[in-house]
Design goal:
Layout: E1 4-8, H1 32-42, E2 47-52, H2 57-68, E3 73-78, H3 100-105, E4 115-119, E5 122-123, H4 126-138, E6 144-151, E7 162-169, E8 175-187, E9 190-195, E10 198-201, E11 207-215, H5 219-233, H6 244-253, E12 258-264, E13 269-270, H7 277-289
Parallel strand pairs: 1-2, 1-4, 2-3, 6-12
Antiparallel strand pairs: 4-11, 5-13, 6-11, 7-8, 7-11, 8-9, 9-10
Helix pairs in contact: 1-4, 5-6
Length: 299
Protein backbone atom coordinates (compact mmCIF):
# COMPACT_ATOMS: atom_id res chain seq x y z
CA UNK A 1 0.00 0.00 0.00
CA UNK A 2 1.33 3.42 -0.93
CA UNK A 3 1.77 5.81 2.01
CA UNK A 4 0.04 9.18 2.33
CA UNK A 5 1.61 12.60 2.79
CA UNK A 6 -0.15 14.89 5.28
CA UNK A 7 0.74 18.57 4.80
CA UNK A 8 0.12 20.92 7.73
CA UNK A 9 -0.93 24.19 6.11
CA UNK A 10 -3.47 25.70 8.54
CA UNK A 11 -1.06 27.84 10.56
CA UNK A 12 -1.69 31.56 10.97
CA UNK A 13 1.93 32.57 10.11
CA UNK A 14 1.86 35.32 12.73
CA UNK A 15 5.62 35.94 12.59
CA UNK A 16 5.65 35.97 8.79
CA UNK A 17 2.72 38.31 8.27
CA UNK A 18 1.04 36.69 5.24
CA UNK A 19 0.03 33.32 3.79
CA UNK A 20 3.50 31.93 3.20
CA UNK A 21 1.98 28.49 2.48
CA UNK A 22 1.03 29.59 -1.05
CA UNK A 23 3.77 32.12 -1.72
CA UNK A 24 5.65 31.43 -4.95
CA UNK A 25 9.39 30.75 -4.51
CA UNK A 26 10.39 28.57 -7.48
CA UNK A 27 11.35 29.90 -10.94
CA UNK A 28 8.08 28.53 -12.35
CA UNK A 29 5.95 30.01 -9.56
CA UNK A 30 6.18 26.95 -7.31
CA UNK A 31 5.42 27.01 -3.60
CA UNK A 32 7.61 25.15 -1.11
CA UNK A 33 4.82 22.56 -0.92
CA UNK A 34 5.13 21.91 -4.64
CA UNK A 35 8.69 20.70 -4.18
CA UNK A 36 7.74 18.52 -1.21
CA UNK A 37 4.86 16.92 -3.11
CA UNK A 38 7.05 16.44 -6.19
CA UNK A 39 9.62 14.62 -4.03
CA UNK A 40 6.87 12.57 -2.39
CA UNK A 41 5.50 11.46 -5.77
CA UNK A 42 9.01 10.41 -6.80
CA UNK A 43 9.40 8.46 -3.56
CA UNK A 44 6.20 6.45 -4.05
CA UNK A 45 3.54 8.30 -2.04
CA UNK A 46 0.04 7.78 -3.41
CA UNK A 47 -2.01 10.53 -1.76
CA UNK A 48 -1.51 14.02 -0.36
CA UNK A 49 -3.88 15.43 2.26
CA UNK A 50 -3.77 19.15 3.05
CA UNK A 51 -4.80 20.44 6.49
CA UNK A 52 -6.07 23.98 5.90
CA UNK A 53 -8.37 26.56 7.45
CA UNK A 54 -11.91 26.63 6.07
CA UNK A 55 -11.42 30.28 5.11
CA UNK A 56 -8.86 29.41 2.44
CA UNK A 57 -9.74 25.84 1.53
CA UNK A 58 -11.20 26.81 -1.85
CA UNK A 59 -8.12 28.88 -2.71
CA UNK A 60 -5.89 25.91 -1.93
CA UNK A 61 -7.86 23.52 -4.12
CA UNK A 62 -7.85 25.98 -7.03
CA UNK A 63 -4.06 26.20 -6.82
CA UNK A 64 -3.17 22.54 -6.36
CA UNK A 65 -5.88 20.44 -8.01
CA UNK A 66 -4.91 21.38 -11.59
CA UNK A 67 -1.21 20.77 -10.88
CA UNK A 68 -1.65 17.40 -9.20
CA UNK A 69 -4.35 15.83 -11.34
CA UNK A 70 -3.10 12.54 -12.72
CA UNK A 71 0.04 12.65 -10.56
CA UNK A 72 -1.18 12.04 -7.01
CA UNK A 73 -4.56 11.92 -5.28
CA UNK A 74 -5.27 15.13 -3.36
CA UNK A 75 -7.81 15.87 -0.64
CA UNK A 76 -8.41 18.57 1.96
CA UNK A 77 -9.41 18.64 5.62
CA UNK A 78 -9.88 21.68 7.82
CA UNK A 79 -8.57 22.61 11.24
CA UNK A 80 -10.81 24.82 13.35
CA UNK A 81 -10.67 25.72 17.03
CA UNK A 82 -13.66 23.64 18.07
CA UNK A 83 -12.59 20.43 16.29
CA UNK A 84 -12.30 17.29 18.46
CA UNK A 85 -13.21 19.01 21.74
CA UNK A 86 -15.97 16.41 22.26
CA UNK A 87 -18.17 18.67 24.38
CA UNK A 88 -15.40 20.62 26.08
CA UNK A 89 -15.89 24.38 26.16
CA UNK A 90 -13.64 26.53 24.01
CA UNK A 91 -11.97 29.26 26.12
CA UNK A 92 -13.61 32.53 24.96
CA UNK A 93 -10.25 34.28 24.52
CA UNK A 94 -8.80 31.46 22.39
CA UNK A 95 -7.94 32.59 18.83
CA UNK A 96 -4.90 30.44 17.87
CA UNK A 97 -5.22 26.93 16.40
CA UNK A 98 -4.50 24.19 18.91
CA UNK A 99 -1.20 23.23 17.28
CA UNK A 100 0.40 20.61 15.07
CA UNK A 101 -0.78 17.43 16.82
CA UNK A 102 -4.34 18.76 16.76
CA UNK A 103 -3.92 19.42 13.03
CA UNK A 104 -3.05 15.75 12.49
CA UNK A 105 -6.26 14.73 14.25
CA UNK A 106 -8.26 16.60 11.63
CA UNK A 107 -7.28 13.93 9.07
CA UNK A 108 -8.31 10.92 11.16
CA UNK A 109 -11.36 10.15 8.99
CA UNK A 110 -9.43 10.42 5.71
CA UNK A 111 -6.17 8.52 6.26
CA UNK A 112 -6.28 4.74 6.79
CA UNK A 113 -2.70 3.82 5.80
CA UNK A 114 0.80 4.67 7.14
CA UNK A 115 1.45 8.34 6.58
CA UNK A 116 4.09 11.04 6.78
CA UNK A 117 3.56 14.51 8.23
CA UNK A 118 5.34 17.67 7.05
CA UNK A 119 5.02 21.42 7.44
CA UNK A 120 3.84 23.38 4.41
CA UNK A 121 6.60 25.98 4.71
CA UNK A 122 9.65 23.72 5.11
CA UNK A 123 11.87 22.20 2.42
CA UNK A 124 13.09 18.75 3.45
CA UNK A 125 15.07 17.36 0.49
CA UNK A 126 14.62 14.32 -1.76
CA UNK A 127 16.64 11.96 0.44
CA UNK A 128 14.28 12.43 3.38
CA UNK A 129 11.21 11.47 1.32
CA UNK A 130 12.88 8.35 -0.06
CA UNK A 131 13.94 7.23 3.44
CA UNK A 132 10.53 7.98 4.93
CA UNK A 133 8.66 6.17 2.14
CA UNK A 134 10.79 3.08 2.65
CA UNK A 135 10.13 3.16 6.40
CA UNK A 136 6.38 3.57 5.98
CA UNK A 137 6.14 0.70 3.50
CA UNK A 138 8.40 -1.79 5.28
CA UNK A 139 8.74 -0.98 8.99
CA UNK A 140 5.85 1.17 10.20
CA UNK A 141 3.60 -0.53 12.78
CA UNK A 142 1.37 0.40 15.69
CA UNK A 143 4.44 0.30 17.94
CA UNK A 144 7.00 1.69 15.49
CA UNK A 145 6.90 5.31 14.27
CA UNK A 146 9.68 7.50 12.86
CA UNK A 147 10.99 11.04 12.57
CA UNK A 148 13.64 12.53 10.28
CA UNK A 149 16.43 13.96 12.42
CA UNK A 150 18.17 17.05 11.05
CA UNK A 151 21.35 18.57 12.48
CA UNK A 152 20.37 21.69 14.40
CA UNK A 153 23.07 23.81 12.76
CA UNK A 154 21.49 23.10 9.35
CA UNK A 155 18.04 24.36 10.36
CA UNK A 156 18.39 27.91 11.70
CA UNK A 157 17.19 31.24 10.36
CA UNK A 158 19.56 34.19 10.25
CA UNK A 159 16.65 36.54 10.92
CA UNK A 160 15.31 35.50 14.31
CA UNK A 161 14.61 32.65 16.70
CA UNK A 162 13.02 29.35 15.64
CA UNK A 163 11.14 26.49 17.30
CA UNK A 164 12.62 23.00 17.08
CA UNK A 165 11.90 19.64 18.64
CA UNK A 166 15.24 18.78 20.27
CA UNK A 167 15.79 15.00 20.18
CA UNK A 168 17.54 12.70 22.63
CA UNK A 169 18.54 9.54 20.75
CA UNK A 170 19.79 6.22 22.14
CA UNK A 171 22.68 4.15 20.80
CA UNK A 172 20.41 2.15 18.50
CA UNK A 173 18.90 5.21 16.81
CA UNK A 174 15.60 5.33 18.67
CA UNK A 175 14.12 8.47 20.18
CA UNK A 176 14.35 8.62 23.97
CA UNK A 177 12.69 11.99 24.40
CA UNK A 178 11.85 15.12 22.46
CA UNK A 179 11.41 18.59 23.88
CA UNK A 180 9.98 21.53 21.99
CA UNK A 181 12.28 24.52 22.29
CA UNK A 182 10.39 27.57 21.08
CA UNK A 183 13.25 30.09 21.02
CA UNK A 184 16.50 28.85 19.46
CA UNK A 185 18.93 31.34 17.91
CA UNK A 186 22.58 32.18 17.35
CA UNK A 187 24.29 34.46 19.85
CA UNK A 188 27.95 35.45 19.65
CA UNK A 189 28.67 32.59 17.26
CA UNK A 190 27.01 29.98 19.46
CA UNK A 191 23.64 28.24 19.16
CA UNK A 192 21.49 28.73 22.26
CA UNK A 193 17.93 28.40 23.41
CA UNK A 194 16.05 30.54 25.88
CA UNK A 195 13.46 29.41 28.38
CA UNK A 196 12.08 30.65 31.68
CA UNK A 197 15.34 29.68 33.42
CA UNK A 198 17.63 31.64 31.10
CA UNK A 199 19.84 31.00 28.08
CA UNK A 200 21.46 27.59 27.44
CA UNK A 201 23.90 26.32 24.76
CA UNK A 202 23.15 23.64 22.16
CA UNK A 203 25.54 21.74 19.87
CA UNK A 204 25.24 22.32 16.13
CA UNK A 205 25.09 18.52 15.65
CA UNK A 206 22.11 18.12 17.99
CA UNK A 207 19.41 16.12 16.15
CA UNK A 208 16.16 18.04 15.85
CA UNK A 209 12.75 17.38 14.41
CA UNK A 210 11.50 19.61 11.60
CA UNK A 211 8.07 17.97 11.86
CA UNK A 212 8.77 15.26 9.29
CA UNK A 213 7.13 12.29 11.02
CA UNK A 214 6.10 8.79 10.00
CA UNK A 215 3.01 7.34 11.67
CA UNK A 216 0.78 4.29 11.69
CA UNK A 217 -2.92 5.30 11.58
CA UNK A 218 -3.24 4.07 15.19
CA UNK A 219 -1.62 7.40 16.12
CA UNK A 220 -4.98 9.12 15.61
CA UNK A 221 -6.70 7.36 18.51
CA UNK A 222 -3.69 7.72 20.79
CA UNK A 223 -3.27 11.43 20.13
CA UNK A 224 -6.99 12.11 20.52
CA UNK A 225 -6.84 10.93 24.15
CA UNK A 226 -3.71 13.02 24.67
CA UNK A 227 -5.43 16.08 23.19
CA UNK A 228 -8.40 15.78 25.54
CA UNK A 229 -6.06 15.57 28.51
CA UNK A 230 -4.14 18.58 27.18
CA UNK A 231 -7.28 20.72 26.81
CA UNK A 232 -8.42 19.81 30.32
CA UNK A 233 -5.04 20.82 31.76
CA UNK A 234 -4.79 24.05 29.76
CA UNK A 235 -8.35 25.36 29.88
CA UNK A 236 -7.08 28.64 31.32
CA UNK A 237 -4.19 29.13 28.92
CA UNK A 238 -5.39 30.66 25.61
CA UNK A 239 -1.96 30.32 23.99
CA UNK A 240 -1.17 26.69 24.86
CA UNK A 241 -0.48 24.50 21.80
CA UNK A 242 -0.71 20.73 21.46
CA UNK A 243 2.58 20.11 19.64
CA UNK A 244 3.43 16.77 18.04
CA UNK A 245 6.40 16.29 20.44
CA UNK A 246 3.99 16.35 23.39
CA UNK A 247 2.06 13.40 21.97
CA UNK A 248 5.25 11.59 20.96
CA UNK A 249 6.79 11.99 24.39
CA UNK A 250 3.65 10.49 25.93
CA UNK A 251 3.80 7.63 23.40
CA UNK A 252 7.38 6.78 24.41
CA UNK A 253 6.94 7.26 28.16
CA UNK A 254 3.81 5.09 28.19
CA UNK A 255 5.73 2.20 26.64
CA UNK A 256 3.35 2.04 23.66
CA UNK A 257 6.24 1.79 21.21
CA UNK A 258 9.36 3.38 19.78
CA UNK A 259 10.19 6.15 17.33
CA UNK A 260 13.03 5.55 14.88
CA UNK A 261 15.18 8.61 14.14
CA UNK A 262 16.09 8.70 10.45
CA UNK A 263 19.29 10.77 10.28
CA UNK A 264 20.05 13.23 7.51
CA UNK A 265 22.81 15.76 6.91
CA UNK A 266 20.61 17.70 4.46
CA UNK A 267 20.35 21.44 4.90
CA UNK A 268 16.82 22.48 5.71
CA UNK A 269 15.43 25.79 4.58
CA UNK A 270 12.09 27.45 5.05
CA UNK A 271 10.30 30.70 5.76
CA UNK A 272 9.78 31.78 9.34
CA UNK A 273 10.35 35.47 8.69
CA UNK A 274 9.85 37.74 5.67
CA UNK A 275 13.62 38.11 5.45
CA UNK A 276 13.95 34.36 4.81
CA UNK A 277 12.10 34.60 1.48
CA UNK A 278 15.05 35.72 -0.72
CA UNK A 279 17.20 32.92 0.72
CA UNK A 280 14.55 30.35 -0.18
CA UNK A 281 14.21 31.74 -3.71
CA UNK A 282 17.98 31.57 -4.23
CA UNK A 283 18.10 28.04 -2.84
CA UNK A 284 15.49 26.78 -5.30
CA UNK A 285 17.19 28.52 -8.22
CA UNK A 286 20.42 26.79 -7.26
CA UNK A 287 18.73 23.39 -7.01
CA UNK A 288 17.25 23.90 -10.47
CA UNK A 289 20.63 24.95 -11.87
CA UNK A 290 22.20 21.85 -10.30
CA UNK A 291 19.65 19.63 -12.07
CA UNK A 292 17.79 18.51 -8.94
CA UNK A 293 14.49 19.85 -10.34
CA UNK A 294 13.16 21.03 -13.70
CA UNK A 295 12.63 24.78 -14.01
CA UNK A 296 8.88 24.14 -14.43
CA UNK A 297 8.06 21.51 -11.86
CA UNK A 298 4.76 20.09 -13.11
CA UNK A 299 5.02 20.50 -16.88
Amino acid sequence: MQPTLLVLAAGMASRYGSMKQIQQFGPGGETIMDYSIYDAVGAGFGQVVFVVRESFREEFSQIFDPKLEGKIRASYVTQELNDHLDGRQLPPERIKPWGTAHAILCARNVIKEPFAVINADDYYGKEAFVSMSEFLQTQCREDNYSVVGYELGNTLSEHGSVSRGVCEVDATGNLLAIQERTKIFRENGQIVFEDEKGIHPLRASTPVSMNFWGFHPSFFDFSLHQFHDFVDRNAGNPKAEFFIPLAIDAFIVSGRGRVRVIPTSAKWFGVTYKEDAPVVERSFRQLVQDGAYPDRLWT
